[in-house]
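Practice problem: predict the structure.
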Amino acid sequence: IMNSLEALVKLAKNGDKDSFRQIFERFNNAVFAFAALRTSNRDDALDIVQETFIDLWDGLPKFKYRTDEEFGGFIFTVAKRKLYKYYKSRDKTVPLDEKMTDGAYEMESSDYQYLFQHVNSLSPDYQDVLKLRYWSEMSFGEIASILNIKETTAKVRHYRAIQQLKTLMEKYGNTI
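Answer:
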């Protein structure tokens, strides 16, 4: 059975649904985590995952496979477009009572809440690297491909983000 990503992509490009299903199974959790962190809504994140893979299926015949990381970057580029569309279509205001009843904003532990708060206070570049690395569990190569930067740049941003996080956590009496 061929299950290298390159072989799966090649078969899926030619309409093999089982190969595409295997691609979906490899990437859907990471795409879901990526979308869920940005929408804070499970249903919206699931919709984005679904739309991402529908577009991937439609766009696959035109995709030219080079590396696993580049293919992962392609998937997340599609997901980023879906997120952009999601944000563009949303109402600009949400009633306060609707926000209050949404359990998605509750954190399970105060430590996690502090960490998340500190991550969100970092620059967007640092936030992206940390969220892709730890919430979407991606390699630096995949992160570089998604953010359209060099792998060494991803590693440097990661290092600097961790240093800033440590400083923030120590300043406010928390540790990582």
